[in-house]
Amino acid sequence: MDAETHYISGGDGAIFTVFSHERTAPEADNTVNELIISCPTSKESLSRLYTMFKDNVFAVAFGITSDYHLSEDCVTETFVRLTQVKRFSTKKGDGKGFILTIARNVALEFRRRYKRDLADNIIQSYGETEKTVEDSIYINQLLKYLNDIQRQTVILKCCAELTFKQIAKVMKCPETTAKSRYKKAIIILQEKAGEDQ
After folding, report:
1. Which residues does 174 contact at the CB level (< 8 Å), separation at least 6?
2. What angle do CA 54, 159, 111 make, to 5 degrees?
3. What is the pLDDT of residue 179?
4. Which CB contacts under 8 angstroms, 24+ apart, belong to 29-38?
5. Is the CB of residue 4 less than 8 Å from the CB of residue 25?
6. Taking the mean position of all CA atoms in its chain, how far away is CA 62?
């Protein structure tokens, strides 16, 4: 975590500190594409891709499975499958969307396989404070008001930070459909959040 101290001129020379999570700068699509191509033969490429996308892959998997440990398994399986990719064409699209498509497919497969074990689990979260855990549980409870497709769309947009064009590719639907699903989901979440307050 990085901290910046700001000084504001005033009576007593007020000082405040802003803490921000360190975020890795997104790499250019071409770099990601090159890493995917070399991934089957280069551990370094796989390691870089893992560092860049593990959080996004986890978010996508958790949005589908609603299970912390199963989502961790999805992350591992996604990167294992990435090493098995024989042909990846940079002309077909961006690397980030390709990785998240694999993640989505793995999560759907795992959910089908372990569906009977996933009956209405409550979020398991390793937060830094009780507040983080409470917020995670609250968000998870709100997401349960959405149908499966809406939940995936919100997670791809908010957690994985994909554009609507990328979401459309991952979910195999028109871009306008991805936008309307997101808009409807946000309206539902706002209504339900308003009820809880």
Report:
1. 168
2. 70
3. 92
4. 29/94, 29/95, 29/96, 30/90, 32/94, 32/95, 32/96, 32/99, 33/88, 33/90, 33/94, 33/95, 35/95, 36/82, 36/85, 36/88, 36/95, 36/98, 36/99, 37/88, 37/90
5. no
6. 8
Residue type, 61: A
Which residue pairs, CB below 8 angstroms and at least 24 apart, start in 15-24?
Answer: 24/51, 24/52
Tokens of 107: 């999560």
Per-residue pLDDT of the chain (197 residues; tens, 9 = 90+): 444 444 444 444 443 344 444 444 445 556 888 888 888 888 898 899 999 999 989 988 888 887 788 889 999 999 999 888 887 776 666 788 889 889 999 998 888 887 654 444 433 444 444 455 566 667 777 888 889 888 888 888 887 778 898 888 888 899 999 999 999 988 888 888 776 54
Complete DSSP assignment for 135-175: HHHHHHHHHTTS-HHHHHHHHHHHTS---HHHHHHHHTS-H
Question: Tokens at residue 87, please?
Answer: 């042909």
Amino acid at 187: I
Q: 114 Cβ partners below 8 Å, 6+ apart?
A: 65, 67, 70
Helix (H) or strand (E) holding 75: helix 68-82
DSSP 169-193: HHHTS-HHHHHHHHHHHHHHHHHHH
